[in-house]
Amino acid sequence: MSAEAVKSAKRCLEILELLTRGESPLTFSQIGEALALPRSSLHGLLTTLLDAGWLSYDGSQRTYWLGLRTLEAGNAYLRSQDLPNRAHPVMEGIRDALDETVQLSVLDGRFNVYVGKVDGRQALALASAVGRRLPAHATGVGKVLLAGLDRTELDRLLDGVRLERFTERTIADKAALHRRLERIRRDGYGTDDEEYTVGLRCVAVPVRDHTGQVIAAMSVSVPAFRFNRDRSAVMLGLLRSAAAELSSGLGFQAAPAAGRNGHVDGR
Question: What pTM does this model have?
């Protein structure tokens, strides 16, 4: 590799590190000034990172921010650091309290990948299995993971995608999906109301890392006939406690919680 190629690679890493350390997007000038890079070189480096998905660009603000590829890389690192083993004890605690199936999932493109699962004794046919990928818009954990993305990343992810319909309740309209994701951000949990499998409902909550980024989602799945207001409140409470414990172990410090409803509204 030539010395010039090595220099360019080093500068690309410096740009990513700068944006990783920051708390807000940066303009072209701000990046150039912070790293003392020539404008001509910086333009080429930013274009390369944008084209590869490592950066995203807000045309209205003329700012750059981390792209979807950084999230994908983070999820890959997360899997390599054995998050499922960290999560297994708290997932078993939920399973033991409810005797229902508990799952852990991470985002892979527009799909959620199941990386952990603890089965209850109840007879329940689930589409999930460790390693299986399902379209994120049609599952509870998937929508929680999508809700953790900013609008630029989400639009990039769904650009040119037709949302598949699996049941009559699947959200197959992008505007409706955006409305549901906004509700998930507000309420702090997501649901699957027979949207992937008829007769199956679930409640899901986010797991966050030390930066507050949603890096995984945990859910409880139950047959629709066992899903009611009281049971959903218990499920949500157990999930929130377990996710808070797991997130805290990853370095996340939660802000004081405001009053929130204890029941689940799937719609």
Answer: 0.69
Handedness of CA 219, 222, 227, 233 (dihedral sign): negative
Q: What is the pLDDT of residue 11?
A: 92
Range 72-249 classified under CATH 3.30.450.40: yes
**What is the rounded average pLDDT of the residues 116-140?**
80
Out of 1.10.10.10, 1.20.1250.20, 3.40.50.720, 3.20.20.140, the CATH code matching 3-66 is 1.10.10.10
Q: For the chain, what percent of residues have pLDDT higher than 90?
A: 56
Can you tell me the mean pLDDT for 3-20? 87
3-state secondary structure the chain: CCHHHHHHHHHHHHHHHHHHHCCCCEEHHHHHHHHCCCHHHHHHHHHHHHHCCCEEEECCCCEEEECHHHHHHHHHHHHHCCHHHHHHHHHHHHHHHHCCEEEEEEEECCEEEEEEEECCCCCCCCCCCCCCEEEHHHCHHHHHHHHCCCHHHHHHHHCCCCCCCCCCCCCCCHHHHHHHHHHHHHHCCEEEECCCCCCEEEEEEEEECCCCCEEEEEEEEEEHHHCCHHHHHHHHHHHHHHHHHHHHHCCCCCCCCCCCCCCCCCC
Please indicate whether residue 253 or residue 1 has the higher confidence score (pLDDT): 253
Give the model confidence (pLDDT) of 98-108 as tens digits. Answer: 989 999 999 98
> Which sequence spans correspond to the domains of the chain?
3-66, 72-249
